[in-house]
Amino acid sequence: MGLIFTPKHQKLVNQCYPTGRTPDKKPKSSETSYLLYYVNSRRTKLEKVSTYLVKKSTADLNHRRIGNITVTMELMNKIVCHCRENLNVFVKDFLHIMIKTLSNNNVNNDIGVLERIEETLSSICRNLDGALCNGDAEFIDLFKTFFNSYLPTVTERVHDSNLVLKGCTDISVVSNLAMNPQGSELLSEAAELALKSFQDRNPTYKIRSLDNTEQVINRRLTRTQTHALGLDDLPEDTDWAVRALQAFFNTSETDKLSLAIRVLLKILLKTPNKELLEFICNGIPVHLRYTVILIFIRNLSDENGDAVTILKLVSSLLVSEVSIIGLSVLDVMRVLLNMQSANGSSREICHQCSLTIADLNKKTYYKDQTSDMFLEVLSRLKDDKTKENRAIFEEDLQRLLESTTNATLSLDLFFDLTPFTDSYMKLFQLVSNSVSGAFTISKLFSLIDSMSSVNAQQHLMSEAFAKFKSITLLSGLRHYLFTAATPSSAYYIYHAEAARFLGLEDYNSQTSHKKAISELFSRDDLLNFYSDMGTNKYSEKGKRILLSKEPMLSTTDLISNASPEQQQQQQHAANPNDVPGIDNQLTYPEVTPTKPYDARSLKTLRYTTPKVRDLKNLNGNSAGNPSVNNLLRASQSVKSHITNITFLLSELDSDANELKIQDPDEEEIALERSEIARSQTVRLSTIEGKGSKRLSVPIKVTPETDEFTDAQEEVEAPSTRGKLFKV
C-alpha cells in the first residue's frame, strides 16, 4: 500500500537507482532523463526533489550504501547542469548533502565518492552568480563550511593532490567571490595551496634565487629578446597545478587577481625566487601585469628584510623579459623616493631603492619618461636641503645616468642638473640634438669656460660640435667674438675644433700661432676664413656675425640654410603685411600739409593714363631719382590704408609742382556737370581705377578743359519697332 501513495517525485528519484550494493553504481539513463524533464518543466518540484535527496542520502550514509551515494552525486550534477537558472532553489540542499558525505568517516575515504563530489562542486561553481555569493549569507557560510571540510579530507584521507588542485580551480572560477570578505579568504587559501603544490611539483621554483640579481640588473636589455617560458605558454591539460594557477592569474577579474598576487608575494617572501615571479607574470594578461609591481610596492614596510626582498623582486621583474605596459613610472618612483626619505638611516634600503629606480628606467613606457624621472630627482634635490637626503638623491641621479642610454634630455635640463653631479660628459651624452634658443647654447660655452680641467673642456667642446654641428660653430663664433676679452684655453679649443669642423688647415695653423703668442683673433682675421663659399659653406652666416654690432643672434639664423634674401622672402610670405625693403620699425615723419585736405578730396582725385615718356623715365631713372623711388615705394606699400594716405600726402606736398589737385568747390561743380556728360579723361581714370583697390600714384596730370553747353532743342529718337537691320 505504501508504494501506491508514494509521491511522484519520490518515485522518479527512486527509479534512477539501480539495484544491488556494488560501490560503482551509475544512474539509469532513461529514468534520469525523465527526472530531468520533470524538474525542468515544473520549478515547484525542484525543491521537493532536493529535499527528498537530502533525506535519501542521509539514510544511505547511515547504512553505508556507497553505491547509492555515488548515484546521488551524479544525479545532483545533472540537475545542476540542466536547471542552472534555478540554482538558488536547491543549491543549499546539495551543499548539505556534500557536507554530510565529507564528514562521514565511512565513505569520505572512498576516492570514487570524492571524485563525484568534486564534479558536482565544479558544476555548482561554474553556474554561481554574483548575487547569490554576495547577497545570501547562509549560502556563503555553507560554501565556506564545505571547503573547510573538502580540502582537509582530500589532503589527509586520500592524499590526492589532483583533487586538491581541482577544488582550488573550482573555487577560482566563481565570479565575484573576491568581493565577499569570507569568499576572499577562501580564494586566498586556494591560491596558496595551488602555488605550494606547483612548487612541490617543480622544485626549481622553491629555492632562493635572488643572489645573482645584480648581474641581471647590470645586463642591458636589447630590442630583440627571447621569450622566456611562462604560465601562458603551457597547455591547459598538462598539469592540474598549472591549470589552477592559470585560473587564478590568467583572468581579467581584478579583485581575484589582486588577491592572488598578494598570496604570491607571501610565498615569495618565504622563498624568494625570481624565476617563479617571471613565470607567473607571463600568465597574467599584458594590460594587467603592472598591478604586480604596484601591489609589491604598496606592501613595502619599514622592516629591513621584507623591504629589501620586495625591492629586489621588483628589480628582477623590471629588467626581465616580461612585457609590461601601462605602468605609472612616476607613481612608483615617488613611493621609492619617499621610502628613502623615511629610511635614511638604513643604508641597505636606500641603496636598493636607488637600484630599483635605475631599473625602472631600463624600459621605456612612454615618450618623456626619462626626462620626467630626472626632473623628479631634481625637484627632490632642490626641495630637500638636508645633507643626508641630498647624498641619497645624488646617488639616485648617478644611478639614473648609468641606466640611461637614449639621448632624450633637453639642454636646459642639462644645465639644471650640472650643479648636482660631476659626470658632465655622461650627462651631456644624454642631451638631445634639439636646441630651444640661442641663449641656451650660449650657456654651454659659459659652462665650458668655467671648467677647470682643460681635458674636460676639450672633451665637452668636441661633444658639442658632434651633437649640434653648425649651431655650435656659429654660436661659439658669436660668443667668443663678443665675450672673449683675454686669451683662455676654452677660446683656443673652440677655434681648433671649428677649424677641424670646417676642414681649414690655415685656420688651424693660425689658432696654434695665436695660442703660442697669447693673442686673440681680430674680426679681419676671422673674416679671411669666412669669405669663400667654396671652402666654407657657412661663410655667409659667419660673415654676418663678424660684421654685426649686436651680440645676440636668433636660433633661426643659426639653423636656417637660406640666404638673407631668401630669409627676407620667407618672412614676407609668413607676414604679407610687411613690405620688402622697408624696416618694420620704420617711422614716417609727421606731415604738415600746406592746405587742408579731407577724405573726400583725396577720394575723388583723378589721374590720367601714364604717358610713354613717364614710363621711360620710370624705367631708366628709378635708381637715381629719389622722387620716383619714393613713388614706387609708396605704390607698393600694403602696410595699411592710413600709412598709404599719410605717405601720399607727404609726396604730394613735396611734388606739388607736378600735380594739380582739384579744389573741393570745383569738384562739386564737376560732379554736377558729370551728370549730363562725361569727359574722356574721367572715363579713362574710371577704367584704370577698377583694376585695383589701392590708391594709384599720380604721375602727372595733364590739364584738360571740357566745355559743356545746354541743349537748345530736344532730340527725337526714331522708333525702330518693326524694322529689320542688316549687319
From TrEMBL:
Q: Where in this protein does the record put region Disordered?
A: 561-584, 706-727
Compositional bias per record (Acidic residues), positions renumbered to this chain: 706-716
InterPro entries, per database record: ARM-type_fold, EFR3, EFR3_HEAT-like_rpt
Instruction: List cellular component terms (GO).
Output: plasma membrane
| BP-aspect Gene Ontology terms | protein localization to plasma membrane
Which protein family is it in?
Belongs to the EFR3 family.
Instruction: Please report the name of this protein according to its UniProt entry.
Output: Protein EFR3
Q: What is the lineage of its organism?
A: Eukaryota, Fungi, Dikarya, Ascomycota, Saccharomycotina
